[in-house]
């Protein structure tokens, strides 16, 4: 993977926000450099306020960096048409970000519609994606998001992100608000799609267990900086109390679960 | 008499197509203009806090101006503007009726539309707006596909509030010459025709409710994606517009317009003048309920063709104006005197006056310090009131203003001690009141005179139709006519009675 050129690269990116009311400005992203290879599934973890969401919003230029360069396929995104850029990237929001006044089908088909696809092609694509996301099209197509369960809404949100066949998907705590069972199922379903469709995914999460289970590589952020990155195994050898603490939680959970749920009742 | 068998209901119903059509027309035009201005302004202001504050501040200030005053202010404003365009651009326009009413009402409709549109758009969930950006919408697409649809209920609530306000406030456009359902209310209030007042209020309330429901139909139709509801709503709007245009299509264009101010005698005399013109084969209509300062200007600019005014009023209101032109036009417009005088006079109960030995204002002066006086809305600020007080050293304990038709009952009941009434009022006899003498002639003469518009100065057909009235109406006849009209008779019926009574005396020459 290291020989291929990166699909997405952050080079010395900085972004600050005004503190407001005389408070000191907040440096949300502080000199971050990061390269994401095509096909990679990258998870960014960190406490709230660590700058992980800001980093994601910089990637599809919902905000612009103060300094540094963000490139996709080698092209600086500051110089490309921002509307076309966003249409070429799928985005899944924490609480779904579905348009409450549009039906499931209209939500899923929105980016193809903006791209000017013919209506028949959009309809076919919507059904295809709903099937892919394990949502029965016929009973769900014309419902409003408010009439769906949380898990169904997130499935629609993922379907919407994939509708215009993007190569890149950005996810901001996509499964955070779901119950553990739904979360696990949806995570596994997405991981499968990521592989099958050859996607490149950046996922933000505060759940280290989720990151370990889904991602190829994990980036740990603190106070706007990357403090560690690598596979779960590589992170285990990093000498940093925060990284250690982050890894402790899934490790402890795994040990307790092993003790409490013995696979072999006889042992 | 049973309230429901009252013949005035039929009379009221006869006016409905004209009043309702004009009311709908001015209201819809004002709303359309208001929306056309407010909605783009609200969109423009949503990301500009400075403009937003200025707009909402301006609209709030407009809202604090009473509706009647706002409407009245537009009249002189447009009059001045029309004079300017006539001078600089070579064309004038009518500052009377439709235009000032529509502009004032449009201004009045702005606050709820502006405020609800701005707050509705601001109230949208920022996460949804960011999602709209992230799926690749341009700012215009986001506005059209996400922000406006989500804010629609709030925006529609504003539009519906504006609609109800405008339809209600449009009843106040009668005094500036716009026919509306307010004609019932103003005429009814002045002639104590409660059937008219009730009819006007009910008609405008029903109209407001119907339009509100039509808008609600469109709103819910848009939300529930029900094409049926939207189509029904749009049909409703189209029907309204058709109803609004109907009277203007059916009305004869070249018709003489007789004006009337806002009191009983004026309604009777305007009806009399109109009937005389119609009897002479001239098409004529009445425009009633005009403000006392509006009516002369309307005559001057030719928006009305004739009306009856009083010499003292003209002297106080019009002659003191600095422009000589107005005085010349006034004299040119004068057709002649009707024969009676309707002057201000101090009036009190006959029994009380006799008990106190009061026969004239000079006798009253000694008692005035313990007495309260009531008058109409203008008397206490008119020059003759000052001259009256000066001539007799009059100082009252208390001054009150009230609706002219209520003050006779008030003084008869002892709620006030003296009123500044009108000499031709029939209620003086009805309530057994006495007119106090004015030995020092502090009150100027108030001869009733027929005035013609300058453009009708040489209109012999018009003059010939009205000249038989001159010098024929004495004070006793006018008092009786006024008394009849404050009962259950319509102004038109009283005018017919009046003509029979004076017509019997034979032609004037």
Cα radius of gyration of chain A in angstroms: 20 Å
Rg from alpha-carbon coordinates of chain B: 27 Å
**Which percent range fits the helix content of chain B?**
55-70%
Major beta sheet, strand line-up of chain A: 6-7-8-3-9-10
CA distance, first residue to last residue of chain A: 42 Å
The sequence of SSEs of chain A as H and E is: EEEHEEHEHHHHHEHEHEEHH
Strand content of chain A: 15-25%
Mean pLDDT of chain B: 84
Describe the protein's topology.
The complex is a heterodimer of chains A (267) and B (509).
Chain A: E1 8-17, E2 26-36, E3 41-45, H1 52-59, E4 67-72, E5 75-76, H2 82-87, E6 89-92, H3 104-108, H4 110-114, H5 119-132, H6 137-140, H7 150-162, E7 168-172, H8 180-196, E8 200-204, H9 208-214, E9 217-222, E10 225-230, H10 232-236, H11 241-260
Parallel strand pairs in A: 3-8, 3-9, 6-7, 7-8
Antiparallel strand pairs in A: 1-2, 1-4, 4-5, 9-10
Chain B: H1 8-45, H2 49-64, H3 67-88, H4 98-122, H5 126-134, H6 139-169, H7 182-190, H8 194-223, H9 227-250, E1 256-259, H10 264-279, E2 284-287, H11 292-300, E3 306-310, H12 311-319, H13 324-333, E4 334-341, E5 344-349, H14 350-356, H15 361-364, E6 372-375, H16 383-392, E7 398-401, H17 404-412, E8 418-422, H18 427-430, E9 433-435, E10 447-452, H19 460-466, H20 475-485, H21 491-503
Parallel strand pairs in B: 1-2, 6-7, 6-8
Antiparallel strand pairs in B: 3-10, 4-10, 5-8, 5-9
Helix pairs in contact in B: 1-2, 1-4, 1-6, 1-8, 1-9, 2-4, 3-4, 4-6, 5-6, 6-8, 7-8, 8-9, 10-21, 20-21
């Amino acid at each position: 993977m290291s020989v291929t050129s990166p699909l997405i690269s952050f080079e010395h990116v900085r972004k600050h926000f005004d503190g407001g009311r005389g408070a000191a400005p907040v440096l949300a992203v502080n000199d971050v450099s990061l390269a994401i290879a095509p096909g990679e599934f990258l998870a960014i973890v960190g406490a709230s306020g660590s700058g992980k969401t800001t980093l994601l919003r910089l990637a599809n230029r919902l905000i612009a960096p103060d300094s540094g360069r963000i490139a996709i396929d080698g092209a600086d995104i500051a110089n490309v048409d921002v509307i076309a850029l966003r249409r070429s990237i799928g985005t899944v929001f924490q609480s779904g970000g579905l348009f409450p006044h549009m039906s499931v089908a209209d939500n899923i088909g929105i980016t193809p519609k903006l791209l000017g696809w013919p209506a028949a092609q959009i309809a076919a694509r919507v059904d295809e994606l709903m099937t892919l996301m394990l949502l029965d099209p016929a009973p769900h197509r014309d419902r409003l998001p408010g009439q769906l369960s949380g898990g169904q809404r997130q499935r629609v949100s993922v379907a919407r992100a994939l509708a215009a066949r993007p190569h890149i998907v950005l996810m901001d705590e996509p499964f955070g608000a779901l119950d553990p069972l739904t979360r696990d199922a949806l995570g596994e379903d997405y991981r499968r799609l990521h592989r099958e469709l050859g996607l490149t995914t950046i996922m933000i999460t505060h759940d280290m267990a989720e990151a370990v289970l889904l991602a190829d590589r994990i980036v740990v952020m603190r106070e706007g900086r990357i403090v560690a990155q690598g596979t779960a195994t590589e992170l285990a050898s990093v000498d940093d109390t925060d990284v250690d603490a982050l890894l402790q939680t899934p490790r402890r959970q795994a040990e307790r679960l092993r003790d409490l749920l013995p696979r072999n009742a006889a042992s | 008499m049973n309230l429901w068998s009252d013949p005035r209901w039929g009379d009221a119903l006869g006016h409905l197509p004209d009043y309702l059509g004009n009311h709908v027309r001015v209201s819809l035009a004002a709303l359309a203009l208001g929306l056309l201005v407010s909605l783009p302004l609200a969109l423009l202001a949503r990301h500009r806090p400075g403009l937003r504050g200025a707009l909402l501040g301006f609209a709030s200030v407009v809202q604090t101006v009473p509706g009647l005053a706002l409407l009245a202010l537009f009249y002189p404003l447009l009059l001045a503007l029309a004079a300017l365009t006539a001078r600089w651009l070579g064309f004038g326009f009518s500052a009377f009726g439709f235009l000032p009413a529509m502009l004032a009402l449009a201004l009045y409709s702005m606050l709820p539309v502006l405020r609800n549109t701005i707050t509705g758009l601001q109230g949208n969930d920022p996460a949804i707006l960011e999602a709209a950006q992230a799926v690749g919408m341009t700012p215009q697409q986001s506005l059209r596909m996400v922000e406006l649809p989500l804010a629609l209920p709030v925006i529609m609530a504003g539009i519906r509030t504006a609609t109800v306000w405008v339809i209600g406030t449009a009843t106040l456009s009668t005094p500036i010459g716009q026919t509306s359902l307010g004609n019932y209310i103003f005429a009814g209030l002045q002639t104590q025709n409660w059937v008219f007042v009730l009819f006007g209020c009910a008609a405008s309330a029903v109209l407001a409710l119907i339009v509100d429901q039509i808008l609600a139909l469109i709103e819910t139709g848009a939300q529930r994606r029900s094409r049926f509801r939207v189509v029904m709503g749009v049909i409703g709007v189209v029907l309204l517009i058709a109803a609004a245009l109907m009277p203007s299509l059916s009305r004869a264009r070249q018709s003489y317009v007789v004006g009337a101010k806002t009191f009983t005698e004026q309604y009777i005399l305007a009806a009399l003048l109109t009937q005389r013109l119609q009897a002479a084969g001239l098409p004529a209509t009445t425009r009633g309920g005009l403000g006392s300062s509006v009516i002369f200007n309307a005559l001057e600019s030719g928006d009305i063709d004739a009306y009856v005014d009083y010499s003292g009023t003209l002297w106080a209101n019009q002659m003191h104006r600095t422009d000589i032109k107005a005085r010349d036009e006034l004299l040119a417009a004068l057709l002649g005197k009707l024969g009676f005088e309707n002057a201000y006079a101090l009036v009190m109960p006959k029994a009380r006056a006799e008990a106190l030995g009061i026969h004239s204002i000079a006798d009253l002066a000694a008692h005035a310090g313990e007495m309260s006086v009531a008058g109409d809305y203008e008397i206490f600020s008119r020059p003759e009131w000052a001259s009256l007080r000066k001539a007799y050293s009059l100082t009252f304990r208390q001054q009150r203003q009230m609706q002219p038709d209520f003050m006779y009952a008030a003084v008869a009941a002892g709620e006030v001690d003296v009123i500044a009434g009108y000499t031709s009022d029939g209620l003086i006899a009805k309530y057994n009141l006495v007119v106090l003498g004015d030995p020092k002639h502090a009150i100027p003469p108030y001869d009733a005179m027929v005035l013609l518009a300058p453009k009708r100065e040489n209109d012999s057909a018009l003059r010939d139709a009205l000249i038989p009235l001159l010098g024929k109406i004495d004070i006793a006849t006018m008092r009786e006519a006024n008394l009849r009209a404050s009962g259950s008779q319509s102004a038109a019926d009283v005018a017919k009675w009046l003509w029979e009574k004076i017509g019997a005396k034979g032609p004037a020459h």
